[in-house]
Each structure stands twice: as structure tokens, then as C-alpha cells.
Amino acid sequence: MEEVLNELQEWLRIASVSADPRAVDDVRRAAEFTAGMFERAGLEGVRLIEGDGHPLVYGEWMHAPGKPTLLCYGHYDVQPAEPLELWRTPPFEPTVIGENLYARGAADDKGLAIILIWAVRRYLAEGRPLPVNVRFLFEGEEESGGDHVSQFLRAAGGEFACDAALICDTEMFAPELPTICVGLRGIVYAELHIETGETDLHSGVYGGGVPNALEVAARVVASLKGATGKVLIAGFEDGLIPPTEEERESWAALPFDEHEYQRGEAKVFTLHGEPEYSLFERLWARPTMEIHGIAGGFTGEGAKTVIPCEAVVKMSCRLGPGMDPNRVGSLLSQAVAEVTPAGVKSSLRILHGAPASVVDPKNPFVREAASAMTEVFGSKTVYTRSGGSIPIVGLIEEVLRVPSVMMGFGLPDDNLHAPNEKVYLPNVYRGIEAVARYFERLGGL
Amino acid sequence: MEEVLNELQEWLRIASVSADPRAVDDVRRAAEFTAGMFERAGLEGVRLIEGDGHPLVYGEWMHAPGKPTLLCYGHYDVQPAEPLELWRTPPFEPTVIGENLYARGAADDKGLAIILIWAVRRYLAEGRPLPVNVRFLFEGEEESGGDHVSQFLRAAGGEFACDAALICDTEMFAPELPTICVGLRGIVYAELHIETGETDLHSGVYGGGVPNALEVAARVVASLKGATGKVLIAGFEDGLIPPTEEERESWAALPFDEHEYQRGEAKVFTLHGEPEYSLFERLWARPTMEIHGIAGGFTGEGAKTVIPCEAVVKMSCRLGPGMDPNRVGSLLSQAVAEVTPAGVKSSLRILHGAPASVVDPKNPFVREAASAMTEVFGSKTVYTRSGGSIPIVGLIEEVLRVPSVMMGFGLPDDNLHAPNEKVYLPNVYRGIEAVARYFERLGGL
């Protein structure tokens, strides 16, 4: 345990902020340190894979013929630490307080990714063979949206035969409640452009005579989604696979205080959404549409009286399982065109799209992971979903055609992407134990 | 004529950009030059009036007992000249090309305000008495929204007895068509604040469970105004005094090409507005609501997936005659409160308000101005309105309780506030003639 903590602290001291161009040397140092961890764990063929952006780190152990192969994914880069003044301990001087270790990257993802490494190390470093084959692939651009891992997997995916991916980058639904995430929503991100003319006009001189691009934008937006939260585009939900009754029941049984969620976590004055669905179904399984920003006209200090001739709406839809992002993009474009008034130009640009991913909890790779976690944590593993998307999961599903097993060892109060990020150390140690037991179970199948 | 042109060119060479703090010396030089012009014209008691911001310039001639007193208003400051690269001649080197004089301030307002000065100079400098009394008050903050003239008039207005104000800062409806502006719309400018919670949230994690402040803003905005342009707030138009049948007919008789207006002037793909009203009634006499900007969330490059917890809508209503800005502000606040969903906070902050101003064309001060212009320009003077507001007119009406006579000598293509501003010199000379004849007519009443 002390060795794990020491190595983790050393890793966390490297400020591998992938989004910061000035940190490029630190990011590389973190990649090299990761390679060293792989080697100390007994992995073979350890190397940095260069390409556009920060390097990937690869290592493998493939000496369990006839046994399953797991692709173990993690990332060695971290979010920026700003705002620094809100940290109670320095973000890159890992500090143990009680049973928590505070540092940027403590939970996202170094403190959880290290679980995978040490689960392997416990075998190989002691001269014992692993019960399964493993390929480790860690990236350094998860927090900066880099494209390197995607380019690499698309190009080299054929050589990456595996049976499942194992990812430790998610959290437990509640402390002491072992959790596997078995579903992610898809997304279609779009920019709506509205144009009414060539130049902004004075609202005194022209008001009453010409259209207003921001008003049109507001009207279009308000027409696409009902006041209760339902997306009103015809055909939008076609293909949607609702959760099973069993899933709904399991979600309803999760320990959850809606009031605490509203006030303490989301910090909103009211919850909101389609009244005929439960909160978890709305967050995890229902498609949505959200407005992220509306540009155009004047938003500075004071009172400028301009009729904007252009408006840009940043918006996205989250997709439930079974919904095709391309189809949703087309429907959205069509709906926008239909509600745009005559004589006004509108266009929709799709920035990116990804389908939802769901893994069947009855899939043996998931089932065995759940059993391993239950053994170690002493309570029944729950299956949750996430309303967001984890790009690597979609990529693995699309390119490698295998399921991703997301074993959650983080906690809801780990302050990911925020000041005072921490990891609960007992979960790191129990995580190593759980992943090792998972290897055993898979090897024994 | 040569003397007028020389003095105007010298005035225009002073870059009196009131909004530019670095130009403060030039603005003062322009004030002093204005005072010199007043003195050369034979005005008495000429002085700079100091206060917050740039000085006012005052001068008077009050030796026509029993005759009306006119407050002659103009402004010696100009708009910034940027973007400089679009000027074909240097903005502060006045250049005559054909019958036009090009310079920043050529039409707004130096080239038109000089008409008032020379109309007086033609009498007093030649030793002839003026047929009326005049008080000249020129300001240096018209283009920068300064408060000096307002503070001064509110404080000293009682000493400023006059029968009408005369303003040369507007334009002819069309070349060779003498024009008096007899109406301005009022305004209520407001900021709508929508708040749904304490922090922006991730649209993957929370989408479907919480309200979106920008979506609420769009919905509120879309509910306040119908798709055809009518404001839907109950009681909004109470008190509105529509134009008379005679005014409507005179507007319909104006020489006007709607297609050219749409394509050439407004440069919009379509005109828009309440179909039951003519374009001029919509622009000049109908109340409106316009959205100027919607802040909140993310409008930068790329795809940030944020559910904004705050939105601010900059908006304003133009008011027709008879509508009370305070009442409209209250109705707007009330309407916003009514359409804000439960559990969402909204508030409306009124930034400023001003009522509409209309002058009866039958008022003798207006009628005689029209006759004087008709004599000089050789065609019948038309009465128009403006959809905007000229703050000094409202101020004069409120504080001095006299009508403003707006004799328009500018042209629609003078490029006010834009590169290559110019004045059509024959209008300056004919303007001096017309104002002199106006003095005669008022003196003979």
C-alpha cells in the first residue's frame, strides 16, 4: 500500500495539463513516468506511441493463451488546476489528509488508473502469471479533446484484438456502493446560424420594419422543445430503446435523496424535465436538447440599440440508445428549416455526433466485474448509466467492437475538474484487489 | 458662400471625437472655435459652460422685444472616424468633391449646425437686427451620451425662457424634398435576468433533469411578441395615439421605393412587421420590442456542453405617442414574471426610458419653418417622423415645455456615423437662406 501511494504521489507531482501548451514537457515526463510504471508492473513491449499531440503509452502481457484479452485504458493527463486560490493544498504537491489524497488528477484519472497497473503488478512483479492477457493503452489528451488515440485506434485497431475494455475512470453511485456504469448517452452538437440581412440596424430607425435574427433564434429554439422538456421534432425518438422494466426498478432502488441532489449537488432552484419519466430515466436514458449559448447583437455594458442581422445558437441533443446521430442531425436541420420564417436564412452545422453506448449487464465481462466488486466491497454492485458520453467507449465499440467495462472507484465528492480534487485511498487499495479478483474470475471462465 | 465653406472646413479639421478620452484637448479646441463662430456671428454673452464632461457653448441675441425667442441647438462633437481604411479622403482634412464636402462631422452636425450660426451672422454681422430673439446652446457630448446638457438644462432651465427650439440635425426624406421631422418614438430599455441555479452544469450529467436559463430566456422572449411583430403584453398599447388619417395619407404620398429601401438601404432579405400597418406607420408610430443581445453560457469556438444557470437579455421597446414609459416598464416586468416557469428566478431592470415626442404640424413654429423651406427649395415641405429618439428633443419638451422644430438639410446618403461622411454644400447655403426666411416669418407673426 505504501509503494502504491509513493508511486501515485510521484506521478501526481508531474503537472501534466494537456490543454496547456506551456506544459508540453511535463506531459511528456508524465508519459515517460507512465511507461516506467508499466515496466515496473512487468508489462512487455512498453513504448511511447508518437503521433499528432501527446504520446500514447503502450504495454502488454499476452502469455495466457486461450484466455480473454482485456484492453486496459487510462489517461495520464489532468485538467488545469485553476483557480489556484481555491485549493487548500497545492494541486501538484499530493497531500494525504485522513484517508484522502488531494491533488489535481488524484481521481481523474491517475489515482484510479493506477489500480489497473497495480492489479497487474501484484502478479507479474511477484513472478506469478496473469490469469488473462492484457494490453495497456494510456493516453495524454483525454482532458484536452485530442485526437491521437482515435487516429491510432482507427489506423491500428486491427492489430488490437481484445475481448473487452476495462476502464477505471468513473465513480460509485454512493460511498461503499460498488458501481458499474453500463450506459452512456450519445450526442449531436450543432450550431444554428440565423441571418436576416447584411448588417446590424438601428432599432429606432428600423424597428418595426425588419426581422431580428435573435428574435427568430429564440422563436426557433422555443419551437423545437416543449416547456416540459420534451423535444418536439417529429421522428426524433424513432429507434429509441427504452430501459427495461428491470433497469427502471433497479434505478428506483438506488439510495437517493432528490432534495439533496437538487439543493446540494445540482444547486438549482428546481428540477425540471418530462414529468412522465423518473429523474434517472431523464438523465440517463431520455434524449434531450440543450441550448449552450446564443451569440449575436450586443451583450456589453450599457444600452446599445441594435437589431442584430445574425445569430448563432450553440446547441446539442443527448441521444438515447438506438438513436442514430446522423438521422437526428438531419431531422434537426429539417425542423429548423420548417420553423424559419420566410425571407430569413437559417442553416445548421453539425459539429460532432456519437451514438449512445449500452452494455448488457448480463454480458459475462460485466457480470464477473460486478461479482469481483461485490466480493471486495461487501455489498451488491449496482448498475448505473451516465447521461454524458466518454469518447473512448464509443471509439472502442466502433473500432474494436468490444464492450467496455467501467468499474467505478471514484466517489461523488471527488471534485473532478474542480479545486481540491481528491481520491479516497481505501478505494484505490480495494480497487486493486477487485481488479485482481476480476482477472481471476475471467481466467477461470 | 466661400466664407461659410472656409469656416466650416476649419471647424471640421478639429477632431472633436467626444467618445475618445485622448481627444479631450481637440474637443475643447472645437468648443473654443464654436465660441469664436458665435462671436463672429454677432452673438452676445458668448461663453463656455463648464460642468461634468465637455463644455457647452452659449451665446444669445435678445434685442427683439415682443418677438419670439428661439433656442438654437447644435453639437460640435463628432463620431469616431474608424474604420479609417474605408475613407476615400482623410476624415479630418475636409475635401470638396463636386458639390459635396467630405469629412467626419460634415453632416453630423457641424455642416448643418453652421446653418444656424450663419443665418444669424447674415443679419448681425451686417449691422441689421434679427427679427427674433435667439439663444444658442451647442453641446460637445451628443455622440458620447454625455449628461452635461441635461444637467445644465434641468438646473438652469428656468432662466432659459424660449418659445421653440430650432434644431438642424436631421435629414430630408429625399434630395430636393424639404422635410421637417415632427415626431420621435419613445423608448424603454431593459435587461431581463433569468436565473435557474448557482452554477453552470454539464449537459451530459444534468441534461433532462434541470432547467436551462437560456432556454427559459428564449421562451420568455418568444412569448412577449407575436411572430408577425405585434407585442403581446396586455395593456401595452393603452394610451397610444395613432397618426391621423391626414398623416397616414401624407406618408403614403411620400416618394418611396420599398424594394430599394429593403435591398439598398436596410439590406435585409425581407421586410417584416405587423401586416395591418404600412411600413411608415410601423417605423414611425407603432410601438415595438427588439432583442439586442442574449448573454449566458458559452458562445466561443468549439463545442462546450454547458447548461447555463444565468441568462441576460438586452431588450427595448419603442413607444408611440401617448404611451407612458414607466407604465410600459411595469407591464413588461409583470409579463415577464407571468411567463417565467415556477422555480426559475427572473427580474427586469429598466436601464432608461423616454416618452415619444410629437409636434403638431399646425403649430405656427412648425408651419412657418415649412413655408420658409418651401420657398427656398421650390417644393412643398413634407412632414415625416423618426422611429428613433433624439434625447435633446425630449429634454427640451420636458424641461422647457416648448416644441422642437427639426429642419432637415441632410441627405439620406450622407453616411452619418460611417466612413465618407459628407454634406451636400448647396443644402448648407439654401439652409442658411431658409432659416433666415424663417426668422423673418416668425418676426412678422
Would you kindly provide a written description of the structure presented here, covering whatever features stand out?
Two copies of one chain form a homodimer. Chain A has two domains: 2-183 and 356-443, Aminopeptidase (3-Layer(aba) Sandwich), CATH 3.40.630; 186-247 and 271-352, Alpha-Beta Plaits. In chain A, a hairpin with a 2-residue loop joins strand 4 and strand 5. In chain A, 53% of the residues are buried. Chain A is an alpha+beta fold. In chain A, helix 1 packs across helix 3, helix 4 packs parallel to helix 12 (391-400) and helix 11 (364-377) crosses helix 13 (425-443). In chain A, strands 1, 2, 3, 6, 7, 8, 15, 16 and 17 form a nine-stranded mixed beta sheet that branches. The first copy, chain A, is built from 13 helices and 18 strands. Helices cover 34% and strands 24% of the residues of chain A. Chains A and B meet through strand 9, strand 10, helix 5, helix 6 and helix 9 of A and strand 9, strand 10, helix 5, helix 6 and helix 9 of B.
